């Protein structure tokens, strides 16, 4: 099943409750929440208190993407705030396996994100232990960027490896996905598309979500 995870990074931060409820109305599958610390990436967004305040306004799973340094310090805080999937960057984790095990011990699904220039080889010995790989298809830090086309080869290579080794790992992409390139991204092997400005910067985000789902329906359940 192909899933849509709209990113509230592109929503109006003064109307986050409405932004989350729009996703329910449109039929989105996940709420993607980008957490940035101004250190690992050049931007600052939100943290556990805001996530916790949003949790009561939707039953959709919270797909929390930590673009922060020293994520181990905050795993429990994000669990308590309501994260269902917690993704950390391989580049930010000194002991990635330990971090992944702690996420799963807390009862969350574990994801590992890679920046555009990070090689897939860093995942070789962790793939059997994780639920999802997040391929950054823009350089992290800001919404509204253009998809980096070279990342399609990266997605294809990862998808092939996962299939050949029969691993139950989903592939999520984050950055630059829109209605024009969604099919190409899915064909490369993506299971979950994060879309921020492609949803929230449109006249009717609910209808836009439904348009994405129509595209997904071409690929079956």
Automatic annotation (TrEMBL):
Enzyme class: isomerase
Key words of the record: Carbohydrate metabolism, Cobalt, Isomerase, Manganese, Metal-binding, Zinc
Official protein name in the record: Ribulose-phosphate 3-epimerase
E.C. code: 5.1.3.1
Active site: 34, 174
NCBIfam families in alphabetical order: PRK05581.1-4 (NF004076), rpe (TIGR01163)
Binding site residues for substrate: 7, 65, 141-144, 174-176, 196-197
Gene name tied to this protein: rpe
InterPro entries: Aldolase_TIM (IPR013785), Ribul_P_3_epim (IPR026019), Ribul_P_3_epim-like (IPR000056), RibuloseP-bd_barrel (IPR011060)
Organism for this UniProt entry: Defluviitalea raffinosedens
Pathway info: Carbohydrate degradation
